[in-house]
Every structure is written in C-alpha cells, then in structure tokens.
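anyone seen this seq b4? input:
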Amino acid sequence: MATNGASNGLTFKPNGEGASIPQTDPAVYADFEKKWAGKLPSTEAQWVQRAAEVAEVLAADAAVRDRENKSPRAEVALLKYSGLLKVMGPKKYGGGGHSWSVGYKVIREVAKGDGSLGMLLGYHLLWSTTANVVGTPEQAERVANLITSNNYFVGGAVNPRDSDLTITSEGDEIVFNGVKNFNTGGVISDLTVLEGVYAGTEDHIFALVPTAQPGIQFAYNWNNIGLRLTESGSVKISNVRAPWSDALGWNPQWQKPDPAVLGIPYASLLLPTIQLVFSNFYLGITLGALTFAARYTAKHTRPWPYTPDPNPAATDEFYILAAYGNFYAHARAAEALADSAAADIAALYARYPSADLKARSQLSARERGVLAEAVAAVKVVTTDTGLRVTAGVFETTGARATAAKVGLDRFFRDVRTHTLHDPVAYKNHELGRFVLLDEVPEPTWYT
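predicted toks r here
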C-alpha cells in the first residue's frame, strides 16, 4: 500500500511495490556476466581497463537511457558483473584490495561513459568504506565482509544538512524515523546507509541496513536535468531498526559515541574522501565530453564558409583546433591534480591504518586540514574546468550538435547538477584563508 509523506505531499512506496516503476532489465548485459565471471582484475592497470570496458558499454546508449530515465537496475547489475564494486574490498573476502588511488581512477573512467553510473559507483565505494573511518575495527571488518563477499551495491540516505531523520533507542536497538529529501542509489541498492541525529543530542549515527524492507519507502521522484539515472529522490524511513552494535563508532553498552573512534580528527576524513569522489566523476564526465565532442567534430561538423580564407574541413579551423587544445590542457592539468590528491589520501590511510585505533589517534587536525585543502583545490579546478569544457564543446561542434538525438548536452547537465551539491565559493574561501593566513578549515559535513 502506498503511504503519504509528511508536509511535502509526496507518495512513498516500499521497494517491492515499486515494481511498476520503469526500470532497465539486467538480462541485456547477460553476456558480460558470462564474460567476466570469475575473472576479477588484479593490477591497477587491469582495473582501470575493466572500468574503461564498462564505460564503453554504457556510452553506447547513454543518451537514450538518459532521456528514458528508467531506474538503472541493469546498469548496476553490469557494475556487479564487472567486479568494480569490489575494487577496494579486502582480498580475503574476494575483493581487489586496492586503495583509494585506484578507486578514484575507476570512478573517473566509468563516468566518461555515463556520469550517473560513475556517481553511483563513487558513492558505493564511499559507503562501503565508511565503517573504516567512523566505525570500530570490528565493525569495519564485519561490514567489509558483508559487502564484498555478497557483491552488494550500497546506497545512502545521508543528508546531514537537514535534521530530517531522528533516532531513538529501544533496548538493544536503534530506531530510525523520518524523511530524507535526497538519497542516492537507494532504489536499486542491496544495503542503505542511514544517518540521523540521536534524539536529545546533537550526535549523528551511521548504520547500514537492508534496503528491501517495508520501513524503507521511496518516492521515485528523481527527475532532474542531470545525473538522471542516480535514483537520488526522496525516501521515507519508518521504524527501521538496527542493533546498537551496528551504530558505527558508538559504544553499544553505554549508547554513546566512542571517543577513541569518533572523538579524533580521523573520523572526519570521510568528508575530504567523498569530496574527491565528486571531483573524479566531474573529471570523468569532462573527459567523456571532450572525447565525444572531438569525434563528432571530426565526423559531422562543417567548416565556416563565410570567411576570406575558407577551410576544407572543420578540423582545419584555427578556432576549433585552438579550443580543443585549450580544453585538453586544462583537463590534463585537472587530472594531474586529482591524481596528486588521490595519492595523498591513499598515503594517509596507509600511514594511519583503520584497523589500528592507536595509529588513528596519531592523525593531527593540521594534517587532516592540509589534506582537506588539497582536495578543495581539486574541487575548484574540476568544477571550473568541467563547466567550461562541457558547455564550450558546443562551440566546436556546431548548432546541429544541440539536437537531443546527439546527446552532447548530457555531459553539461550532469556536471551542472552535482556541482551545486555544496557551493564551490566556500572552497575558494577556505583555500584563500589557507594561503593567506595558514589556516586549515574546521571539519564540517561538507569540508
């Protein structure tokens, strides 16, 4: 039965009752399930190549799927078949065992073919490793086993800006209730990360729960201009329960945050980690736009005839060549900056391993802040470059490239949509204080 939402007037349905919602059929990718079965990549180069193969498959009909806006059940199945969901999972549970430096490259590669799927993969990798940052070592081990061994896809109903999910305690369980205006990938997920405020406090709790339960109800209302296949619509949470032992970083006996886990700078690493996820799928979308546009120009764009010195082909036009050269230079610079920050994050996690609480406690606020500013620089550059390139390629492709059937517009719409997630102006401001005053930012839910 459908249930009505609170003041927003939305209609919510449990996941099982959303079967009537248009969705893609995993059977279309059955051949890839057979092709990749039991053939997990090993080296970094192999993982990036596998991601490139997935991107090529997704790019073939990305414009059509974007217009149809069907729930991407098949595309998430493709990610599962490819093994990409497990690139950072522990090897002992069947994962790739790689660090974020590889995870970010895989996200970027998939986003070249389809920004929505690059975003879904990025959020999945973040939620899959959340327990490593804000959980106890025991919780992190349990979560890694659960997700990697089962090849689960993880969505998230997390939006700390709004106090829209409350948590109460009933014996050995915590109970979630409320509405999240945005959740990412929940409709097509196996597990959902819930986040809310524990009643009577200002403390937040993260916990992973199975998605397929009556208390998780979706509005199926994601119909935005970009990233249309991310299922980022609203979700209603009604009496969803989890054991206190699954409250990440909390002491289940005392029902309070564990200061050795959540009371140290290490716990706030989750924020720069996901901000670099954002930048990498922005960058992937940008590089995908550049490749797509260059192929279109070479094949379809006509030279401008009304000039004293007409060229025989668009690829001979000075202004087109200069524009592509400039786009390429800025994209390469952004890529190098992103790889540098990714190496910094991977090195930091290696220096302070999540399984060692004593090591975690050694991370200083200053070291965490310097990393956050390195990530902020990437966010600024990939936002500026992404918007400039994905809009600018229309000047190098011509008026006919604006046709819906071409699909060039999806790159700009995707970048434009997510770069509004949090104001990039504040990243510029933080960087200004860092450069001029040698100040690192106080950790927030967006820094």
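The domain at 265-437 is CATH 1.20.140.10 (Butyryl-CoA Dehydrogenase, subunit A; domain 3). Residues 1-7 have pLDDT under 50 and may be disordered. kinda curious what u guys think
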